[in-house]
Amino acid sequence: MLYTNIIHRVDARADSREAMTFQWQAARRLSIPTTTLLTYPALFMDEAIADVEKLRGEADELGLHFHNLQSPRFLERFGTRESAFWLLPQKIRIALLDEMMTAFERRFGHLPKSVGGYIIDAWTLAHIKKTYPTVETAITSCFEEGVKMFYGNNRNWFLFSDGGPWNPYFPSRANALVPAADAEEAIDIVAMPHLNRDMIMALNSRDDLFASHPGNLFRARINEGAECPYLFRFIEAWERQAALNGWSYLNIFVSSPWMSANHWAIGNIDDARTLYTRMLEDLKAREERGTNANTTMDAFGTVFRNRVRPGDATLCHWKDEIKQSKREVVWVVNSHHRCAFDMNRGGALVDFRPYAGRLDGNLGPECPALWNGNYPFLISTEHCGGHWNTAQYASLSNGIHSFTTTDRRTRATVEQTGENAWTFRTETLRIKLGEHTLVLQSTWEVSAGAGIRIRRTVLEYDGDPAALRLTETFLGRPGLHEYPGDLREITLHAAPGTRLPFTYSSEAKKIPDPHAVGADIPSLGLHVALEALTPATEGLLGDGWLFKPCFQLALTYAPKPGEDIITCLTTRPLKNP
Amino acid sequence: MPDNPPPQKPLICPACFAREIDPVMLNFDPEDGGEYYCTHCSYTAKTREAAEAFIRDHIRHRHGIRTTL
Ligand SMILES: [Zn+2]
């Protein structure tokens, strides 16, 4: 079942209130319940509250939203021009929360169960739960809004929340972008994303434009007047995810300025409102077909708590809904890591955020991270120069000719094999090695655990199999953005007993019969390893150089046709980093 | 079905080029009659000519400069 959550935001400006009235009436006409979140200026404006009292239905939920704070009252009360809630000094954040909670209770007679912000860090979220235990759900992050949005928004949008989950989850007390491993680690709030995103654009472009947001689709110019078939394919794609996880969540949060005639991104407001209405009609039709439930944040939170426990994993198999090309990506997230496997590059792991270090991600002037809430990557082909510089992939050689899996586009078949367990595999690839032909299949097994099992199977080879070598390569570089840090903190290891400190020497050290090759990454607080579950013939530890600041781990095998070569990619916390 | 890309001069991805990321080359997928695809963005083209036309028609407009020869 898909659970769709229509969310409104009540703002104070007259044009926004007119747009809000349209949104509310459109939902009411179709009996679609909404979550309506009030902003700070609206809470203290009698006309806005009168709108809410007049327009809300019995099934509508009310809550708070921590954006659009700036107003004469805010400046007078708090004396700061900081406009982003997530960057406010902690003392002001608490005082603002208290004032909003008190005002909400005074206006509506109870405290809210649901709140939202563009980013709510772990410190703030834990404070909310402790002080206001009625809060059960919160919108806490903007999936993959970070470096690319900063550039795309003319380098003035200081919202960095790259590296977290796209789906609802129980956030860790250590870092709100990290899913908790268990109930003890979890802040007892169901964290939800601000919007669902196009999961291919999330990798390589502006996923704020390509999201569950008709106004932003106008901004992306993916509409022709009120026509936007992409939006309906997008909804369908999220409905399909339910088959892989047992549930799927769709967060549609169009704040009222986007439905106002004055918005700079909206050409024709009638077209924008027509598309918005058609979207609601589509969601209603899906509900009548029994594949979608239109719900509120609070009601979905209850569904989620009944289905999902802290520590569970989720998977997303996303196909290209923009161009409907062959492109596909498989995303996996659990309490140990978030991964994106790009089928356009033969299933290479192109974005890898291992969470073993449980790094501090709290924001504000008191916090070391200040404004950068991104959870660091160990692999990001987007930020580190394509698959030449970072990725996990395989290559094959017969001693004369070679082939790299990243050079072949493929599709994935995904199968759920158990609770928190999935297998996905590529198509069988026919590969030319000189005049010989080899048939290869790649399979990944993912779960709620730290290990990712990668299986390569040479199904056929018409040359001399004794000459074949298959190499699994991990090219990594820790980072938060494009610029590399000082990688001399890294030490490469091979079991048993070989070490290579990273010194930008470009040295490559070969190891006979390795059990594993790995690296200590102190800034990420973790050790990453490729473990040979099938005996490997040779391992490699590769130092980088300044023009290619990445470390390399590799395991080479002698594959026999019909036999599986199994490698485990895993991470664990680094003791005494 | 041919297996590897045809031996022709590499094509840059016109969509990446349009947002000033280069050189990103197009790969060739022989399936379904053949298609050029970008590994970086989601650009695809059925023919070399289509990719070249994209550059001709659109890229000269970047930076707001309408260059005519
Ligand atoms: Zn491209």
How many separate structural domains of chain A? 2
Ligands (ions, cofactors included): zinc ion
Amino- and carboxy-terminal Cα gap of chain B: 41 Å
Beta-strand share of residues of chain A: 25-35%
Approximate shape of chain A:
globular
Main sheet: strands, sense, barrel of chain B: 3 strands, antiparallel
The number of strands of chain B is: 3
Report the total helices of chain B: 2
Describe the structure in your own words:
The complex is a heterodimer of chains A (577) and B (69). Chain A has 577 residues and is an alpha+beta fold. Chain A contains 13 helices and 29 strands. In chain A, strands 16, 17, 18, 19, 20, 22, 23, 25, 26 and 29 form a ten-stranded antiparallel β-sheet that branches. Chain B has a domain at 14-61. Chain B has helices at residues 14-18, 48-58; strands at residues 26-29, 35-38, 44-45. Chain B is an alpha+beta fold and 69 residues long. Chain B starts with 13 loop residues before the first helix and ends in an 11-residue tail after the last helix. The site of zinc ion has 8 residues of chain B, from α1.
Concise synopsis of the structure shown:
The complex is a heterodimer of chains A (577) and B (69). Chain A is of the alpha+beta class. In chain A, strand 25 (516-521) and strand 26 form a beta hairpin.
Compile the SSE list and pairings:
The complex is a heterodimer of chains A (577) and B (69).
Chain A: E1 2-10, H1 14-29, E2 35-38, H2 40-43, H3 46-55, E3 61-65, H4 72-78, H5 90-108, E4 114-116, H6 122-131, E5 137-141, H7 147-152, E6 190-193, H8 201-204, H9 214-219, H10 229-245, E7 248-253, H11 269-289, E8 292-295, H12 297-307, E9 314-319, E10 328-333, E11 337-342, E12 348-354, E13 379-380, H13 386-389, E14 391-397, E15 402-404, E16 412-418, E17 421-426, E18 429-433, E19 436-447, E20 452-461, E21 469-476, E22 491-495, E23 498-501, E24 508-512, E25 516-521, E26 526-532, E27 538-542, E28 551-557, E29 564-573
Parallel strand pairs in A: 1-2, 1-7, 1-8, 2-3, 3-4, 4-5, 5-6
Antiparallel strand pairs in A: 9-10, 10-11, 11-12, 12-13, 14-15, 14-21, 16-17, 17-19, 18-19, 19-20, 20-29, 21-28, 22-23, 22-25, 24-27, 25-26, 26-29, 27-28
Helix pairs in contact in A: 1-11
Chain B: H1 14-18, E1 26-29, E2 35-38, E3 44-45, H2 48-58
Antiparallel strand pairs in B: 1-2, 2-3
Bound molecules: zinc ion.
Zinc ion (ZN) is lined by residues 13, 15-16, 24, 38, 40-41, 43 of chain B.
